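Hi there, hope your week has been kind to you so far. Please have a think about how the structure follows from the sequence. I've dropped the whole record in just underneath, so have a look:

_____
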Amino acid sequence: MHINMNRLAAVVFGAYLALSAGLAQALEQPKGKIILSITGKIGEKNAPDAAVFDVAMIEKLPQQNFSAQTPWSKSPIRFTGPLLRDLLAAVKASGSSIKAVAINDYQTVIPLSDAAKFDMIVAYKMDGELIPVRTKGPLFIVYPFDSKSELRSATYYERSAWQLKSLAIE
């Protein structure tokens, strides 16, 4: 019997989202500058067609951190922020892919199954400091590159969007 691991990861992630949706509270309204907009296949919105977040809202999500060497840094960096899967659970996301768009209009597509498979962080801090736009901020989707050798490849480096401004769930 052949098992499609991406399909299995998507089913497991869907179950995770369904369970966590019962735990998630309605999204509040941002009080500060909006730094992230999530659109598409989401069940929780706080704007007409989107879920929008300011830094304070990102900080209220469960926080994780890890240190990783990236191809863009000379030494390991400590990244802090919510897991991508927790952010997706907060907006009750469904679908199979995430289109991440950066401030400079760079776009990458991330399989939704990656959020279940890897402890990816939507980092808003590097080495304990908020990430300014000039150094990849305000948000940076980061894979835990040092945790698995498979993550140290062009595929995952290209999916790591910095200067993140929006996610479209498709």
